[in-house]
C-alpha cells in the first residue's frame, strides 16, 4: 500500500479521535488531544517526505535505511492508536467511561508511549540533517512514482520461509561461469515470494557483474520507460536515452557482463518487446532473472531448463519456520499445511497487518478460524484462496475485522459464496475482490457502502435472499445506492443493478459489465450526459440485444482510452 494510503489513514484516525467531543471538551484529557494532533501533523509530514523519497530513483542505501526507519515509526504509531483507542471511533456512548480511573491510567500510558515516538522523530530528524539525506536524494534523477513498482534495495517486512537453501542454489546458478543459459525464470502464484527471492539473489550477486538493473513490468508496461530505466541504472549516457533507446542500450550492453531482474512480467509479447534491447551475452556471464505467474512466459523467454517453479511449503516447514514471525513481521503468507498447527506456534498475531492464506478445505474448521481472525483484530489486508469460503461461519468472522481495507476471496467451489449482510460492518473497506469466485450472492447493502473504491465481481452474481424473500430491485424493497467514491466496478451484475444508478458513479474509472441490459447500454453509450467524466476503461461483454450502432457516442468520455473500450 502506498504512503499516501497508510499514513493518510493514521493521520485521519488521529484527527478523528482528537475531534471526539469528550476528548475535545475535557480538561483532564487535554494532553491526549494534544498528542493526537501532534500525531496527525507528524504523520502528514512523514507522508510528504516518503512520497518525495520514493520518487527518487535510484536511491542510496542511506536514503533506503531512512525510509525503512520512518515506515517502522509510522507502524508503531498505528499500533499505539489501535492499542489505546480500540473502541473510541464507534460511538459517543462508548466514550462515557473514558474518564474513569482505569481509562485515565490508560491515557497516561498513551502519553508516555507518544513521548517515546517524539524522541525517535527527533533522532531521525537530527540524523537526516547530520548526514544530509535530503541533499543526497536531490542529486539523483527523479522518476514518476508507480505504486505497483517493486524495488531491489529495501527488504519488505515479509515472512520469508524456507528460502535459505533455494537462495544459495540460485546464487550459484547465476554466478556459474560454465552456464550457457543466461536466463533464470522464477515462476509461481501470487504470494509465494517470487519478488522476495529475486531481490535476495540480486542483492547478493550484483557486485560480481559489471552493471546491473531492476525493472518491474506489470500488466500494462511502457516499454520506452522500461528501457530508459535500465539504461539509467547501468550507466548509459543520458543523451542516448532520448532517441532509439533500445538500440543504444543493446549497443551499450553488448560485450558487458550484466545482471538484470525483470520482475512481474505477464505476457510473452512483453519479453519479445524487451529482448530487443538486451544482447544475449551468456558467453560473458550476463544473467537475466525473470519473475512471472505464467509458466509459458518463463519457457518462452529462457526455455524449459530456465524455469524454477515455486511451490507451497510442506505443512511442517511452513508452520515451523513461521514460528513467532507474527510478532516481528507485518505480512504473513500461509501456504497449505495445517493452519491449526500454525496458530499453535503463533498464538499472538495482533501485529500482522496483511495475511494471505492459500489452503485446502480440510485445513479449516470453525474454532481454528475464529481463533486466527479474532487474534488479528488490526488486520488491514486479507486474501483467502480456499474451497471453504462459501461457508457462512468464515465470512461472519471476517466481518468482525473492522480495520480491514482490502478483502480478496477466491474459491473454486461450485457452491455460491454468500456474502453476509454483516459486510456493512467493515467501515474501512476500500477494495472488495470476489472476481475469482465461481458464484457470489450479494446483499443489497453492498450498494450503500459509501467508502468502497474498488469492487471486482465474477460473471455469476445473484441477490442474497432475505426473509421474506424479496428481489433487490422490487419497489416494495427500495435499495439506497450511494457508491459515489467508487473508482472500479469490474463485473457489474446487470440483473441486480438499476441503470439509473450509473449516474451516481461520478468517480468511476474502470467499468466492466456482463450481460448488459438495453437500459444500461442506453445510459452508457447513448445518453448525452456521460456516466463519469473520469472513465478510462469500458468493457461490455455478452450483449445480445440489437442496438443502433450509428447512435453510439463515446466522444463525451474525454479520458476513455481508445484501446480500452470494447463490446464482446
Automatic annotation (TrEMBL):
Keyword terms, alphabetized: ATP-binding, Nucleotide-binding, Plant defense, Repeat
Superkingdom: Eukaryota
ATP-binding among keywords: yes
One example of a Gene Ontology biological process annotation: defense response
NB-ARC domain boundaries: 166-317
Location of the Disease resistance N-terminal domain: 11-94
Domain spans labelled Disease resistance R13L4/SHOC-2-like LRR: 372-560
GO molecular function terms noted in the UniProt entry: ADP binding; ATP binding
Pfam families: LRR_14, NB-ARC, Rx_N
Annotated PANTHER family: NB-ARC DOMAIN-CONTAINING PROTEIN (PTHR19338:SF44), TRANSLOCASE OF INNER MITOCHONDRIAL MEMBRANE 13 HOMOLOG (PTHR19338)
Name recorded for this polypeptide: AAA+ ATPase domain-containing protein
Originating species: Rhododendron simsii (Sims's rhododendron)
Amino acid at each position: 500500500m502506498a504512503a499516501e494510503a497508510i499514513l493518510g489513514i493514521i493521520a485521519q484516525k488521529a484527527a478523528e479521535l482528537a475531534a471526539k467531543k469528550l476528548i475535545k471538551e475535557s480538561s483532564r484529557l487535554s494532553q491526549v488531544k494534544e498528542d493526537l494532533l501532534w500525531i496527525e501533523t507528524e504523520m502528514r509530514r512523514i507522508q510528504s517526505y516518503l512520497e518525495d523519497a520514493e520518487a527518487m530513483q535510484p536511491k542510496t542505501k542511506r536514503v533506503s535505511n531512512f525510509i525503512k526507519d520512518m515506515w517502522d515509526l509510522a507502524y508503531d504509531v498505528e499500533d499505539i492508536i489501535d492499542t489505546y483507542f480500540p473502541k473510541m471511533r464507534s460511538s459517543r456512548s462508548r466514550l462515557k467511561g473514558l474518564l474513569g480511573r482505569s481509562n485515565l491510567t490508560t491515557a497516561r500510558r498513551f502519553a508516555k508511549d507518544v513521548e517515546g515516538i517524539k524522541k525517535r522523530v527527533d533522532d531521525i530528524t537530527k540524523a537526516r540533517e547530520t548526514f544530509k539525506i535530503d541533499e543526497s536524494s536531490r542529486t539523483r534523477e527523479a522518476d514518476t512514482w508507480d505504486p505497483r513498482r517493486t524495488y531491489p534495495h529495501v527488504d519488505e517486512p515479509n515472512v520469508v520461509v524456507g528460502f535459505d537453501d533455494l537462495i544459495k542454489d540460485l546464487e550459484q546458478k547465476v554466478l556459474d561461469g560454465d552456464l550457457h543459459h543466461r536466463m533464470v525464470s522464477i515462476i509461481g502464484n501470487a504470494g509465494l515470494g517470487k519478488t522476495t527471492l529475486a531481490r535476495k539473489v540480486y542483492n547478493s550477486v550484483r557486485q560480481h557483474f559489471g552493471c546491473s538493473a531492476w525493472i518491474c513490468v506489470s500488466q500494462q508496461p511502457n516499454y520506452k520507460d522500461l528501457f530508459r530505466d535500465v539504461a539509467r541504472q547501468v550507466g548509459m549516457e543520458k543523451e542516448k536515452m532520448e532517441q532509439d533507446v533500445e538500440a543504444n542500450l543493446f549497443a551499450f550492453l553488448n560485450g558487458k557482463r550484466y545482471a538484470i531482474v525483470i520482475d512481474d512480467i505477464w505476457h510473452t509479447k512483453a519479453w519479445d518487446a524487451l529482448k530487443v534491447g538486451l544482447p544475449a551475452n551468456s558467453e560473458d556471464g550476463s544473467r537475466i532473472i525473470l519473475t512471472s505467474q505464467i509458466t509459458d512466459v518463463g519457457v518462452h523467454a529462457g526455455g524449459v531448463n530456465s524455469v524454477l517453479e515455486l511451490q507451497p511449503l510442506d505443512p511442517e516447514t511452513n508452520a515451523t519456520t513461521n514460528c513467532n514471525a507474527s510478532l516481528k513481521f507485518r505480512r504473513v503468507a500461509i501456504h497449505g499445511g495445517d493452519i491449526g498447527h500454525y496458530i499453535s506456534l503463533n498464538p499472538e498475531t495482533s501485529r500482522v497487518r496483511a495475511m494471505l492464506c492459500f489452503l485446502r478445505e480440510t485445513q479449516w474448521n470453525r474454532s481454528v478460524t475464529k481463533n486466527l481472525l479474532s487474534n488479528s483484530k488490526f488486520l488491514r489486508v486479507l486474501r483467502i484462496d480456499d474451497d471453504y469460503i462459501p461457508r457462512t461461519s468464515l465470512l461472519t468472522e471476517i466481518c468482525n475485522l473492522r480495520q480491514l481495507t482490502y478483502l480478496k476471496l477466491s474459491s473454486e467451489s461450485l457452491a455460491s459464496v454468500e456474502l453476509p449482510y454483516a459486510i456493512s460492518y467493515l467501515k474501512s473497506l476500500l477494495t472488495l475482490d470476489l472476481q475469482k469466485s465461481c458464484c457470489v450472492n450479494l446483499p443489497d447493502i453492498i450498494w450503500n457502502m459509501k467508502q468502497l473504491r474498488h469492487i471486482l465481481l465474477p460473471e455469476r452474481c445473484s441477490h442474497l435472499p432475505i426473509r421474506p424473500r424479496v428481489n433487490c430491485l422490487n419497489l416494495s424493497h427500495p435499495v439506497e445506492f450511494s457508491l459515489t467514491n467508487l473508482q472500479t466496478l469490474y463485473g457489474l451484475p446487470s440483473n441486480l443493478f438499476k441503470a439509473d444508478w450509473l449516474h451516481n458513479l461520478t468517480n468511476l474509472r474502470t467499468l466492466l459489465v456482463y450481460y448488459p441490459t438495453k437500459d444500461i447500454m442506453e445510459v452508457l453509450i447513448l445518453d448525452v450526459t456521460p456516466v463519469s467524466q473520469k472513465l478510462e476503461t469500458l468493457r461490455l461483454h455478452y450483449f445480445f440485444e440489437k442496438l443502433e450502432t450509428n447512435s453510439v457516442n463515446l466522444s463525451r468520455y474525454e479520458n476513455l482510452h481508445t484501446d480500452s473500450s470494447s463490446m464482446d
